[in-house]
């Protein structure tokens, strides 16, 4: 009888190694931890999974998408830097938007809750919503500045970065919502 | 979905789990539960089978039975998908994987259902060939609905028959050989215990030779069926 080229232990190690790599990849793609662990043993079946679907957006999701896509395109066309700041601002706005969605859900399904608490939450939600709207409006308004600054490229970098940082700082007011919870 | 609802859906209407608008999301969400049902059920079945000998065979069989279920489907799944793909009706990868996992989970759930009866039967200490036949029969009982679920999940319309034939031929063939490689499962109480038999022949050659009583084929250090008690 000939010796098998690969022992059972070798096959098992190879299988688990492939499962480990697949599980790590799924984890990075945003899939649940249990799915990543399941890939350890059933990785051939889970290789077909693509990136996990993004979390649902809030009430301003579509406006955020349009505002940031337009601004990013303009910044790239004008050759102005600030893509990093823009991404950070987008993340902050999206985060605030999702929290608004959460508050909306709480307000929607809060039958029987104390009226005083609901009123405070509603007031805070309106303040935060107005802040998000204001930031989005300023972002659209900033495009004009970018266009003007494209004529003086040397000064564009600092001004764009400063404006984006200022907008991000304004969004911190939305964090007040968390304390109300 | 709660685990009880999931188990009911797997047994009563497996197609409802596969026929979904977003197979990717469904696969990502259900894969751990489906796999746990499949592996857990097969391990319980293995415990029942291992009880015929007792001792370490309880653990050996409980470890090997899930592999008998998992390996053939994982190995044949790409071939099934390619074999069923056509220009007119491509097979969605996530849907095919979901069908395979649902089929495996169905086998696992049925193995769980069969395990107590199998354990009771084997505890009556039937002769070794009878015990082996009973285990094989239970596996066929639990496995056939699982293969059916896979075939139904993989093929739609005209592909249904093709999917059924291909699934049974491919998965069934690899399942038989995997079982052969990972034997013994049923071990006679008096037999010497071993985790795996030495690799010898394939399942068809081995079984044919056994039927023909070709003793030379098994002239190695251990008999072909190393699970049977020495005569």
Distance between the termini of chain A: 71 Å
The total strand number of chain B stands at 0
State the helicity of chain B in percent bands. over 70%
The biggest beta sheet of chain A reads: none
Rg of chain B computed from alpha carbons, rounded to a whole number of angstroms:
19 Å
Which sheet architecture does the biggest sheet of chain B show?
none
**What is the overall silhouette of chain B?**
globular
Instruction: Give the strand content of chain A.
Output: under 5%
Using the CA coordinates, give the radius of gyration of chain A.
Answer: 24 Å
The helix/strand class of chain A is mainly alpha
The whole-number mean of residue pLDDT values of chain B reads: 81
| Quaternary structure annotation | heterodimer
CA-CA gap between termini of chain B:
53 Å
Question: What proportion of the residues of chain B form beta strands (DSSP E)?
Answer: under 5%
- Given helix and strand content, the structural type of chain B is mainly alpha
Mass-distribution shape of chain A: flat
């Amino acid at each position: 009888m000939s010796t098998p080229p690969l022992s059972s232990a070798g096959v098992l190690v190879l299988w688990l190694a492939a499962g480990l790599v697949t599980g790590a990849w799924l984890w990075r793609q945003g899939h649940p931890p249990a799915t990543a662990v399941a890939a350890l043993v059933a990785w051939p079946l889970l290789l077909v999974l693509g990136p996990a679907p993004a979390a649902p957006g809030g009430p301003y999701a579509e406006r955020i998408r349009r505002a940031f896509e337009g601004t990013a395109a303009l910044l790239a066309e004008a050759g102005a830097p600030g893509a990093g700041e823009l991404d950070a601002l987008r993340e902050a706005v999206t985060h605030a938007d999702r929290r608004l969605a959460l508050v909306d859900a709480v307000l929607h399904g809060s039958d029987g809750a104390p009226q005083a608490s609901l009123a405070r939450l509603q007031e805070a939600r309106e303040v935060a919503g107005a802040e998000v709207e204001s930031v989005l409006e300023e972002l659209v308004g900033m495009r004009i500045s970018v266009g003007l600054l494209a004529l003086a490229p040397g000064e564009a970098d600092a001004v764009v970065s400063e404006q984006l940082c200022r907008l991000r700082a304004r969004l911190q007011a939305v964090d007040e919502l968390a304390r109300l919870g | 979905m709660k685990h009880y609802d999931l188990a009911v859906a797997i047994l009563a209407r497996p197609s409802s789990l596969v026929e979904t608008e977003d197979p990717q999301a469904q696969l990502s969400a259900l894969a751990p539960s489906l796999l746990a049902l499949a592996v857990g059920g097969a391990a319980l079945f293995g415990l029942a089978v291992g009880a015929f000998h007792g001792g370490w065979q309880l653990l050996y069989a409980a470890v090997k039975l899930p592999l008998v279920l998992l390996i053939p489907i994982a190995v044949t799944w790409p071939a099934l998908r390619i074999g069923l793909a056509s220009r007119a009706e491509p097979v969605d990868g996530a849907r095919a994987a979901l069908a395979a996992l649902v089929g495996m989970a169905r086998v696992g759930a049925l193995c769980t259902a069969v395990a107590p009866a199998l354990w009771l039967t084997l505890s009556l200490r039937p002769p070794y060939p009878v015990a082996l036949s009973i285990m094989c029969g239970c596996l066929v009982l639990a496995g056939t609905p699982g293969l059916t679920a896979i075939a139904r999940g993989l093929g739609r319309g005209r592909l249904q028959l093709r999917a059924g034939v291909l699934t049974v031929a491919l998965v069934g063939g690899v399942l038989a050989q995997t079982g052969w490689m990972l034997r013994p499962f049923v071990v006679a109480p008096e037999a010497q215990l071993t985790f795996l038999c030495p690799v010898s022949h394939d399942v068809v050659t081995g079984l044919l030779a056994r039927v023909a009583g070709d003793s030379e084929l098994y002239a190695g250090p251990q008999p072909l069926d190393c699970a049977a008690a020495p005569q």
